[in-house]
Structure formats: C-alpha cells, structure tokens
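Incident log, support desk, overnight shift.

02:14 A customer reports that sequence design results differ from what the structure should imply. Their input is reproduced verbatim below. On-call engineer (initials T.W.) acknowledged and began investigating.
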C-alpha cells in the first residue's frame, strides 16, 4: 500500500510539473505577443486555454482522490496541500496570459500613439520569477523560493512606473484613452503573474519547512 501511495505522489508531481511547463510556455508566448504586438500569437494563447483548465481539474481530482484513499500525514499531506494551491495559481497565471492576449488583440486594431515604454524587461522578470518558482519546487530549494519572493518588488516598481506614464500620456492624447487603458492593463496582468509566482514560492517554502510565510516581512 505504501509503495502504491508513493507512486501516486510521484505521478502527481509529474502532473503538476507538466502543467507548470505548459503555463510557462503560455507566459513566454504572451510576452512575445506584447513585445511584437502579434495578434496571431495572442489568438493561439486564447484558443489553447482549455488545455490548462482541463489539466487543472484533473490534478485537483487526483489530489482529492489520494487524500481520501490514503489519509496522508506530515510532509505527504503538506505536499498535497501545496500541489492543490500551486495548481490553482498556475491556472490563474494561464488566465492572466489569456487576458494579456485579449488586450493585444484589441490594441492592434487601434492606431496607437508613440509610447516610449518597453515591456520586455518586465516580461523577462516575470518569466524568470515563474521559472525559478517551479525550479524551486522541482529541486525542493528553499533559498530559490525566497529569491522569487524578493524579486516581486522589482515588478511592482515597474508596474507603478507604467501607471505614472499612462497618466501623463492620457493627458497628451485624450482621444486614445482606450488604447492607454489596455496598455496599462497589460502591466497589471504581468504584475498579477508575478504575484502568483510568489504564491507558488511561498507554498514551496511551506512544503519544505512546514512554515506559512504569507504576509510575512522578508
């Protein structure tokens, strides 16, 4: 029975890592759509979202089945709880990638004003946070998880700079408010992806150390 239980846990770990890889790819594609203003890539992200949703449900059902059949305790229970939460965060990250794609599709239809802002540093930082959070899970690396948590401040700073820029641009080009709002919301969606990557890292810390670090001062 114990051997079967640990096989199920290994299978579950592979499932959550597979979902993580799929979500990473969606975020990378969303970043490309933003920097290249590519509506075709945006449409691909939107069309494929059902794959993430289906896998998220499958992982949750697998977690609940294992908990019901084996009644795990200690670190095994923490693992299942962490997977359930990480699973949800990954699905939410994919949703934010879809939101970004929808913004891009809308924006390319408009004639944008000249806007001196490059989203590439922000998308690169967000992608790095997500990758490191999943690497921390794979390697059970608490230091890497804490690193992700500290990186969130940089993304927040960029998000604030975008807000200030958009306020100024709207004053100069009041006839293009819709474009600027969509531009700002891309920043908001990227900031939310960073928040979810931080959540994943906090769950890794909980899994390894048994300590809930949400809302803590790092």
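02:41 Re-run completed on a clean worker. Output:
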């Amino acid at each position: 029975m114990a051997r079967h239980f640990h096989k199920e846990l290994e299978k579950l770990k592979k499932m959550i890592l597979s979902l993580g890889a799929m979500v990473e790819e969606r975020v990378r594609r969303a970043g490309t759509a933003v920097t290249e203003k590519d509506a075709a890539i945006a449409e691909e992200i939107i069309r494929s979202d059902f794959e993430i949703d289906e896998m998220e449900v499958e992982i949750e059902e697998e977690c609940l089945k294992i908990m019901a059949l084996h009644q795990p305790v200690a670190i095994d229970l923490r693992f299942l709880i962490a997977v359930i939460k990480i699973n949800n965060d990954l699905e939410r990250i994919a949703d934010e990638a879809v939101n970004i794609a929808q913004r891009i599709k809308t924006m390319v239809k408009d004639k944008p004003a000249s806007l001196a802002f490059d989203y590439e540093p922000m998308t690169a930082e967000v992608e790095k946070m997500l990758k490191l959070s999943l690497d921390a899970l794979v390697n059970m690396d608490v230091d890497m998880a804490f690193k992700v948590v500290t990186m969130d401040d940089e993304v927040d700073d960029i998000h604030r700079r975008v807000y200030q820029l958009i306020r100024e641009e709207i004053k100069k080009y009041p006839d293009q408010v819709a474009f600027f709002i969509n531009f700002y919301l891309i920043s908001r969606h990227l900031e939310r992806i960073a928040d979810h990557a931080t959540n994943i890292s906090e769950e890794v810390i909980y899994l390894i150390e048994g300590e809930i670090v949400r809302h803590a001062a790092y």
